[in-house]
Amino acid sequence: MTITINGSGTVTGANTLTNTNTVTSAAATALTLQSAGTTAVTIDTSQEVGIGTTSPAYRVHAYNNNGATAGVTYPIVAENASSAAGNTNGAGIGLVQGTRPTASLEGIRTNPAGDYGTALVFKTNSTGEANSGFSYLTERARIDSSGNFAVGTTSASAWSTGAIVLFKDYGGYQALGVSHASGVASGSAFHNFAYNGAIIGSITQNGTTGVLYNLSSDYRLKNNPQALTGAKDFVMALQPKKWQWWDGSGEGVGFIAHEFMEVAKHSGNGTKDAVETVEIKDEQGNVTSTEQRPVMQSIQPSSSEVMANLVSFIQEQQALITSLTTRLTALENK
Q1: What does the pLDDT read at residue 25?
Q2: Where are the domains of the chain?
């Protein structure tokens, strides 16, 4: 074995060095380690470490230039000798904030076999225990071998209780599953919508078999409430339509967005004939051209605005029916 130190002097005739505490390079010179005459490791003057590259671009930069050659496909492999089922010190990466494993230690790993299969598992320490292993970490999320992302469950194969699962493939389609465990109270949120730190809408559990889609409607948010008038004009101005969808998917029934929003001004989004300019880029990310794409309008026919006018109109009609019935009864009794 030959070691060159500070550009001069060699140590020969030995395969082992003992009592060597420091190996250093000359000033403004990278320190390199060679194997079979080829540079294997480089520590540059910025203390960035390159493995397989002499020009590391990161604090630790492992570069693989062997293509798909067996055994060297991956630049970095973290391997644990034990493959026993239930082993919690499996192959992976431990991320530590500070100088030793503490409550901030996090684990990221994927195993080729064993209790975690080929899932990428994310763990955190919730106990505050400080030791050198991963046995006290609790799984929080995983990406399984099918690409499903699961939080709060170790299996994304079904609608797991008390979990959130983003399904990459759920029976041939993509889906987001949000589930409550048995016993969770009715009214508990599946999803909250917020603005400026305050909840403005939600989707909540309704009993054990339904959901409610909620908008903020508390009286404390409203000044000077009055009885609604003009409901007949509102309803009669709406223009229900039927049509054939442009993509050939069949018949549609409802409203045309811009016509609907001329009446229900607070129950839609967007502007008629709106477009946006989209940049077209090549494989290197350079903008090669632009094109105009339509920005579609959307509406909510079941909004509070529409429902309030419908209810008010029905009440008006019912009052008219009651009045006419009373007059007709009086005429019949003469």
Answers
A1: 81
A2: 3-62, 93-179, 189-221, 231-319
